[in-house]
Structures are given as C-alpha cells and as structure tokens.
Amino acid sequence: MRDATDLFRSLADPTRLRILALLRAMELSVGELAQVLGQSQPRVSRHVKILIDAGLAERRKEGSWVFLSLGSSARVDPLFDMLDRWAEIDGDDPWTLADAARLAAVRADRAAAAERYFAQHANHWDEIRSLHVAESDVEAAIGRALADRPVGRLVDVGTGTGRMITLFGPAAQHALGVDRSPEMLRLARVKLAEAGLTAAELRQGDMYALPLGAGSADTVILHQVLHFAQQPAAAVAEAARLLAPGGRLLVVDFAAHEREELRTRDAHARLGFADEAVLKYLESAGLDARVIEHLEGGELTVTIWAGERPEAKLKVVA
Q: Distance (Å, rounded) from C-alpha 180 to C-alpha 199?
C-alpha cells in the first residue's frame, strides 16, 4: 500500500502527467521537454526527478545530452490504461492537444536538421561511412550473418546509396530499399542500375511507417540507420513488423561511444548503442535476439545484432 501511495503522490501534479504523456510519444531531452511545456529547465528537472524516483521514467546520458524515456512497462502500462479510460469518460485534457502540437514542432526541428544533412552529403555518403570502420569488413560480416539460409524477400530500411541491395539483392527472391531522402534514392537508382539490378525496387518512406505489409519480408536490414533514429525502439519494432515467421532482422550500427561531435556535425541522434539496449528493442518487438559480432577497428566499433521471428506453432486439434 505504501508503494501505491508513493506512486500516486508522484503523479499529483499536472506537469508530471504531461511529461509522462510526452514520453509515451517519444524519448526527449530535458531541454526539449522544457520547450514543449513552456517551463524552465530547472523546474522540469525537478519534476523529472520525482518521476524517476517513482520508477515511472528513466534517464540515459549520451555525451552532454540526457534523454528521458518511460520506466518499465510493468509499472507504466497499468497507469496508462487507467488514464486512457478516464480520458474516454471525461475527454482529453486541454493541454493534450497543445502539447501534441509543440511536440510535433520538436519532431520537425529534428527531422529538418537530418534532412539538411542528408541533402548536403548524399553524393559522398559512402565516403563518410568509410571514415569510421572499414566498410568491407562490415559487409563481409553481414554476409556471414546471412549465409545460413536463403535471403528470400529482402527489405533494406534506410537504404541510402543502395549498397545492401547491391550486395545481397542478387541472392534475394525480391529486393526492396526504402529511404526517406529523395536525394539518396536518386543516387541509389544510379548505383543499382550500374550494378545491373534493374529488378530491385526503391520506395520513399519513413522508417516509422514503412510502406509494406506485415509479414512481407524474410530478411530486413537496418544498416547504419538506427543512430539517426529519434525513436530507435519504434524503428526496430516497425522493421520487425515486416518479418514473416522465421524471418530475421539485422541491425548494424555503432557500439556506444562518446564522440559528441557526431551529434552536432553529422546529425547523429544517438551516440551508438549498448548491446543491452538493442537486444531489448528486438525482444520487445517479439523477436529472439542475439549479438552476432563486434567489429573493432578505425575510430568506432560496429556491432551486428540479430532478431528472428519465431516460427508459427501449429495448433493441435484434439
């Protein structure tokens, strides 16, 4: 009973309820929360501390930034069930729509910065990647990870220049690349044509809302994409949605690092990922998750993680 009393005491402020609703939509920094709420950072920080102490929110430091997210689903899901029911009875709070509009502005600011970067660097994107870890080593490791079974229907999310399609498309039953950037897709079309992959398909689309049906892929690749995602868990879940039973998702990205300049100079939203974080994303998406390989070399380490959709079990009829 004391735990319940402490929990409800932590919620006894409209600002803290607004913070939880915002974190339900996406991870945010304290500064972004302050921007949406129209309050000072010190004041918002005090509210956040109360929510963290109650287990309703979590903080994660990346360089000079601190990102906030919801606490464990076991604790927050029953709370949101209750709040959602009350909203059905009483209607949405007036702050809800206003906060949603300001949150959309935060999303737009982030997306605009990334779009500017992609537009400026589309023509030498492969060169930028090569500055970190030898791309040939990464590509060889991806090939090893895919070698145990047919590629089947391949989807490359955030296809960029189409490199994954170029490498693994010839072995695929069908290959499709998705990218948000028109500049990248134009470059990818040129490179795929040069490689003779005229049957490969390219589509413009968002990693959070892929233009494909559930179960439409056997192999999905997120290659050097997740560190640009403002909502990495949502991006992984959307990629996993495409997998048919027995399908696999490969996430290829940087291990956690402290290279703060990559955030400001190269529009990285995340400074790499710890194994625990990516494995949690994959498992939360309903996949069996594991670490494939750590590739050290160059300035950064690249890790390959895999998630597999369990085979559908046949029901035994008595």
A: 20
CA distance 75 to 136: 44
Alpha carbon distance 176, 217 (integer Å): 10
Confirm if 111 and 175 have CB atoms less than 8 A apart: no
Cα Rg of the chain (Å, integer): 21
Q: Are 112 and 279 in contact (CB under 8 A)?
A: no
Fold (topology level) of 2-91: Arc Repressor Mutant, subunit A (1.10.10)
Contact 28, 68 (CB under 8 A): yes
List the beta bridge partners of residue 202: 177
* Between residues 244 and 130, the one the model is more confident about: 244
Which segment of 63-77, 127-141, 177-191 scores lowest on mean pLDDT?
Answer: 127-141
User: 10 — alpha (psi -120 to 50), left (phi > 0) or beta?
Assistant: alpha
- What is the rounded CA–CA span in Å between residue 231 and residue 208? 8
> And the tokens for 125?
């994107």
The reported pTM is: 0.69
Question: Mean pLDDT across the chain, nearest whole number?
Answer: 87
* φ/ψ bin of 57: left (φ > 0), alpha (ψ from -120 to 50), beta (otherwise): beta
Which residues of the chain are in CATH 3.40.50.150 domains? 124-308
Question: Which runs of consecutive H residues, i.e. helices, occur in the chain?
Answer: 2-10, 14-25, 30-37, 41-53, 73-90, 94-121, 125-130, 135-146, 163-168, 182-194, 232-241, 261-266, 275-284
* Residue 190 · residue 152 · CB < 8 Å: no
Reply yes or no on whether the pLDDT at 94 is more than 50: yes
Q: For domain 124-308, give the CATH number.
A: 3.40.50.150
Residue range(s) occupied by CATH 1.10.10.10 in the chain: 2-91
Backbone angles phi, psi at 218, to 5 degrees: -105, -30
- Per residue in 292-309, pLDDT (tens digit) is 999 987 778 999 999 999
